[in-house]
């Protein structure tokens, strides 16, 4: 056998060498790009748009840690291996230390998401993709062709949820409101009663128009009509209070790059037991394999089964997400999850582009803990065009009355939502107005 292999290798040798010479002799059609022969240079810029946001030093350090495999024990851990428990919070030190103990990075991220969402849902995880990816993960796994889907459209995120629902083949019913207006319980109940949906979509922080949607009572109302409640908190998580379990939210998702102050590219999502049951009893497969929640539940240790490979998770991004969640956890107080809202209520009122206050005539209750008559936009709504580069920067003009959601988009002159999660608040003077500026400096 060995002699036969040796003879075969000798016979193939010249051919292999010839192939190598042929490949090497071909001339390059595309020259090395000159720009790539220079080091990357990025300006130091204060970000005041809806996102991405400035990163804390601890998060930046995490992004430079050593790469490991996406299935190594530090990522794909099933049990504790030495050291202390893998929980987030105080006592972890001032920065990441992935070498002092064997971490359980994915499990720790899951715990951090449960904390910032205020949920005990086992089916809680991070999605390898932006907030859009989490929105699609929610809709792809919950909706089936022919399902009735009720969508609150008061900005572009409702528009996009409706678009995705149509692509799935759901029967989409849009509740359209002018930008800057939220949905009242009465309006939602009318939609639930009329359309009998399996799912209602609401945006907590509509970054294209700057409105904050109250959530108390909406989950209970949905359950009365045997409907699940899906909430987009991409622009508002950690900037405005949200309590998933207490508010009866069935599916909640958010992004990493907004108030949470992690790099873009990962998102957070959680499903209630009712939503999980809908996923596991569906008659058809989700339209996406990549976002199939049964697979994602497994790799994130949510189904109690041995974890198996599904896709290569963004390891470095998960380091950074873990550290951003740790910074929130270390505040260790109820106020940490909505630390900015009281700071921003007063200063944002009366600014160009600010939104009207809640009023009894509108038929809606203000957000949790907000007295009637205070501004709707209590998360620090700033125009995406604002930057801290030298020079004058005017505040964005308000959207024309009745302009409609189509007139609003990220980067337009409409007010956009964002505030950065950090331990300090600084004042900037822009065109004679005082603005709150958040983020590490």
Automatic annotation (TrEMBL):
Residues 94-330 form the Aminotransferase class V domain. One of its GO terms (molecular function) is L-serine-pyruvate transaminase activity. It comes from Suricata suricatta (Meerkat). Gene3D superfamilies: Aspartate Aminotransferase, domain 1, Type I PLP-dependent aspartate aminotransferase-like (Major domain). Belongs to the class-V pyridoxal-phosphate-dependent aminotransferase family. Residues 356-375 have a biased composition (Low complexity). Its cofactor is pyridoxal 5'-phosphate. The gene is AGXT. Its EC number is 2.6.1.44, 2.6.1.51. InterPro entries: Aminotrans_V_dom, Aminotrans_V_PyrdxlP_BS, PyrdxlP-dep_Trfase, PyrdxlP-dep_Trfase_major, PyrdxlP-dep_Trfase_small. It catalyses: glyoxylate + L-alanine = glycine + pyruvate; L-serine + pyruvate = 3-hydroxypyruvate + L-alanine. This is Alanine--glyoxylate aminotransferase. Keywords: Aminotransferase, Pyridoxal phosphate, Transferase. Coiled coil: none annotated.
């Amino acid at each position: 056998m060995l002699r036969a292999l040796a003879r075969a290798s000798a016979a193939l040798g010249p051919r292999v060498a010839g192939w190598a010479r042929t490949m090497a002799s071909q001339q390059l059609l595309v020259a090395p790009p000159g720009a790539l022969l220079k080091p990357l240079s990025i300006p130091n810029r204060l970000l005041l748009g809806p996102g991405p946001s400035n990163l804390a030093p601890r998060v930046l350090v995490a992004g430079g840690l050593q790469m490991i495999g996406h299935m190594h024990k530090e990522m794909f851990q099933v049990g504790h291996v030495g050291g202390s428990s893998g929980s987030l919070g105080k006592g972890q030190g001032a920065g990441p230390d992935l070498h002092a103990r064997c971490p359980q990075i994915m499990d720790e991220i899951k715990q951090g998401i449960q904390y910032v969402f205020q949920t005990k849902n086992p089916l809680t995880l991070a999605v390898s993709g932006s907030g859009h990816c989490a929105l699609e993960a929610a809709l792809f796994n919950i909706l089936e062709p022919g399902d009735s889907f009720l969508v609150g459209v008061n900005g572009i995120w409702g528009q996009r949820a409706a678009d995705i629902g149509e692509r799935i083949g759901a029967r989409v019913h849009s509740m359209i409101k002018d930008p800057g207006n939220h949905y009242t319980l009465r309006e939602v109940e009318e939609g639930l009663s009329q359309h009998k949906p399996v799912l209602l979509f609401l945006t907590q922080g509509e970054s294209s128009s700057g409105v904050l949607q109250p959530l108390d009572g909406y989950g209970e109302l949905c359950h009365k009509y045997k409907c699940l409640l899906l909430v987009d908190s991409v622009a508002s998580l950690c900037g405005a209070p949200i309590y998933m379990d207490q508010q009866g939210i069935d599916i909640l998702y958010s992004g990493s790059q907004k108030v949470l102050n992690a790099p873009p590219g990962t998102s957070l999502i959680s499903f209630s037991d009712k939503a999980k049951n809908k996923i596991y009893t569906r008659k058809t497969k989700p339209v996406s394999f990549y976002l199939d929640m049964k697979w994602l539940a497994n790799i994130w240790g949510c189904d109690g089964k041995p974890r198996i490979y599904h896709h290569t998770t963004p390891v470095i991004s998960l380091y950074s997400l873990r550290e951003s969640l740790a910074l929130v956890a270390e505040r260790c107080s109820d106020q940490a999850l909505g630390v900015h809202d009281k700071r921003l209520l007063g200063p944002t009122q009366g600014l160009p582009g600010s939104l009207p206050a809640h009023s009894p005539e509108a038929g809606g209750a203000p957000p949790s803990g907000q007295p009637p008559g205070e501004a709707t936009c209590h998360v620090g709504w700033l125009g995406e065009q604002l930057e801290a580069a030298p020079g004058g920067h005017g505040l964005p003009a308000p959207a024309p009355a009745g302009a409609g959601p189509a007139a609003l988009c990220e980067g337009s002159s409409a007010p956009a939502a964002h505030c950065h999660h950090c331990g300090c608040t600084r004042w900037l003077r822009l065109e004679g107005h005082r603005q709150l500026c958040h983020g590490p400096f």
